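Quick log. Single chain, no ligands specified.
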Amino acid sequence: AAAGLAVLEEIRRLRLREHATRVGDALKGELAALMQSEDGQLIGNVRGSGLFIGIELVRDRKSREAATAEASLLCSQLKAQHRILTSLDGPGDNVIVVKPPLVFSLENVRTFVTALRVQLRALRFTDLKNVTRTPT
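-> predicted structure:
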C-alpha cells in the first residue's frame, strides 16, 4: 500500500494528469489538422482522452468502410521505420491506438505526427493485396 501511495503522490507532485491532458489535446489537434490535409484522407476520426488516443482509418468517410489492411501496414511501418509502438483495435482492426507513457512530450507529439504523415503518404503508393494482419 505504501508503494502505491508513493506513486500517487509523485503523479500529483509532477502534475502528470494535467500534463497528459495538455499533451493529449495537442496530439488530437495535430491529428485533426492532419486529417484535413491530403495526406490524412484515410483518417476518419480521432478520439480519446488524455494520452490514450484512437485514430480510425477508413477508405471512405461517408461509408466508413474500415481501412483494415492500411491500418495493419501503418502500425507495422511505424514500428519498423520509426521505432514507434502502436496497436490496432476496433471491430475492423482499423483503429490505430496510441497509448504513450505519461512523460510523452510536445516534441514527441511532433515526432509521432510527422512519422504518421510520412507513412500515410507512402500508403498511397503501396499495393495492399498481400498485407497480412499485424499482430498487436
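The helical segments are 2-13, 16-35, 68-82, 106-123.
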